[in-house]
TrEMBL record:
PANTHER family: AGA OPERON TRANSCRIPTIONAL REPRESSOR-RELATED (PTHR30363:SF44), HTH-TYPE TRANSCRIPTIONAL REGULATOR SRLR-RELATED (PTHR30363). Keywords: Transcription, Transcription regulation. GO terms for molecular function: DNA-binding transcription factor activity. The keyword Transcription regulation applies. The keyword Iron does not apply. Residues 5-60 form the HTH deoR-type domain. InterPro entries: Carb_Metab_HTH_regulators, DeoR-like_C, DeoR_HTH, NagB/RpiA_transferase-like, WH-like_DNA-bd_sf, WH_DNA-bd_sf. SMART domains: DeoRC (SM01134), HTH_DEOR (SM00420). SUPFAM superfamilies: NagB/RpiA/CoA transferase-like, Winged helix' DNA-binding domain. This is Glycerol-3-phosphate regulon repressor. It comes from Bhargavaea cecembensis DSE10.
Length: 269
């Protein structure tokens, strides 16, 4: 069966995570594609920082962008905790019984999961975060669905687009997502290109995109965008935004909410 480019590259990453190295010859045989096609994949993926080419194959690039220690989940989880809790409480106000929610693998979404864990409300929650799923499974009122894909060690998330078919069978009312950076030009941006690919697919299918962005990420750029400003329905942050962001957000029909009530009221007009 013919594989799409994304599926083929997902499989390459799966094998690399399992074996740490792979040859063109063995992958060509397994996947039923030409060695020339795989060499093109390897060259592209090396430029993306996902692997390193070797003679006749490739190895996992442990130094790739997105897996640096400062970007690991354990490190990010300990940053700006108070702000993330405030944002998650604000996000909680939007949720209604029997909705289907999507929580990404961000540390901010994990804080929202901790709030959802305490509710008696019946909800379906789809997630790409391992920690998020483990947190939510303790509440019997929640149906928790994991999106399939490649599991990474330092981000504790699902990567790649292997689980897209599952997303086509689910109606997502709200996607709660954070980002490594947010700019008015590029919207929500992240550093791990395989997470970005999956987030793009989820964003296409969500009825509403709720951006959970603490002030440390405002005005910061990252590797790639997964949702433009005009794609976002609500932006929740912990601090008042500068005038330019507010005006651009209003022009794009984005509802901006701050954890500071006075600032929130001012933005909504």
């Amino acid at each position: 069966m013919k594989m799409f480019v994304s599926e083929r590259r997902d499989r390459i990453m799966e094998v690399l995570h399992e074996k740490k190295r792979v040859t063109v010859k063995e992958l060509a045989s397994e996947m039923g594609v030409s060695e020339a096609t795989l060499r093109t994949d390897f060259n592209t993926m090396e430029k993306m920082g996902l692997l390193k080419r070797t003679h006749g194959g490739a190895i996992l690039d442990d130094e790739k962008p997105g897996l640096e220690p400062e970007n690991s989940f354990d490190v990010r989880q300990k940053k700006n905790i108070e702000e993330k809790v405030k944002i998650s409480l604000k996000a909680l106000e939007l949720i209604q019984p029997k909705q289907c929610l999507m929580l990404d693998a961000s540390s901010t979404a994990l804080e929202l999961a901790k709030q959802l864990k305490q509710l008696s409300m019946r909800l379906t929650v789809v997630t790409t975060g391992l920690h998020t799923a483990l947190e939510l499974k303790e509440n019997p009122n929640l149906i928790v669905i994991m999106v399939g894909g490649v599991v990474t060690s330092r981000s504790s998330s699902i990567e790649g687009t292997l689980g897209i078919e599952l997303l086509d069978s689910i109606n997502i009312d709200m996607m709660f997502t954070s980002a490594n950076g947010f700019t008015v030009e590029n919207g929500l941006e992240d550093f791990n290109l395989y997470e970005v690919a999956l987030k793009k697919e989820i964003a296409k299918r969500a009825a509403n995109i709720i951006a959970l962005v603490d002030s440390s990420k405002l005005g910061k750029s990252s590797s790639a965008s997964f949702a433009k400003l005009e794609d976002v329905d609500k932006l929740i942050t912990d601090a008042p935004l500068d005038h330019e962001i507010i005006q651009k957000a209003l022009s794009a029909n984005v509802d901006v909410r701050s954890t500071e009530e006075s600032a929130s009221a001012a933005v909504r007009g």
